[in-house]
Amino acid sequence: MPDPISWEFAWPYLLAALVGGYLLGSVPFGLVLTRLAGLGDLRQMGSGNIGATNVLRTGRKGLAAATLILDAGKGAAAVLIAKLWGPDVALVAAFGAVVGHLFPVWLGFRGGKGVATTLGVLLALSLPLGAASCLLWLLVAALFRFSSLAALVSVAAAPVVAWFLLRDLQMVQLTAALAVLVWLRHHENIRRLLAGQEPKIGGKKG
After folding, report:
1. Residue 5's pLDDT is what?
2. Which of 26-40, 44-58, 85-99, 148-162 has the lowest mean pLDDT?
3. How is the chain split into domains, by residue range?
């Protein structure tokens, strides 16, 4: 077990959490898995996104499930490692992991949309909050069949849920920041949703 942080010298821990979280989050599992499966460059298929929803459009449900688990897992791993040095360090690692997925240096800062990784960090930070966010995603997806809408609703609700479940201002601030990032990365989906052109789950494009 690591020694407790002396907060007089906390910045090295926080910087390490940010960088380490970013590097873990930046691993593009969807791209790696589809290439290993011989499917080519995922960025040239479907929506061009590197996440699980676009992997599903290749028709390989197993690869899509693996991408979802690994994208969530890398966010959770970043948080769980950082938690050894305290909750504040874990919050920084969580933010770094999501930013890494959204803007990976290896892909010219053009990454995924951050939903699975965000849910992963929420589950690791607070199981009740993460579970509530996942259940909300599943509910909206089941009712409306839009992956993007489910993502937008679940991350937008996370700060409210965090306040009522945890009464933790730092968690509210983190989830609000992550919601803004995820919404910004979904700007094209939002435009298509408003125009009635967003493909539903199982569609081939979008």
Report:
1. 58
2. 44-58
3. 10-195
The SS3 call for residue 45 is coil
Alpha carbon distances (Å) from 130 to 8, 10, 38, 76, 93 = 32, 27, 34, 10, 16
How far apart are alpha carbons 185 and 182 in whole angstroms? 5
d(CA 203, CA 141): 13
Q: Is 153 helix (H, G, I), strand (E, B) or coil?
A: helix
- Check if the beta carbon of residue 90 is closer than 8 Å to that of residue 17: yes
4 band by pLDDT with thresholds 50, 70 and 90: low
Q: In this structure, which amino acid lies at residue 168?
A: D
- Tell me which residue has tokens 């979904």: 186
Instruction: Using alpha carbons, select from 106, 40, 63, 82 the residue that is nearest to residue 174.
Output: 82
Please give the pLDDT value at position 58: 87
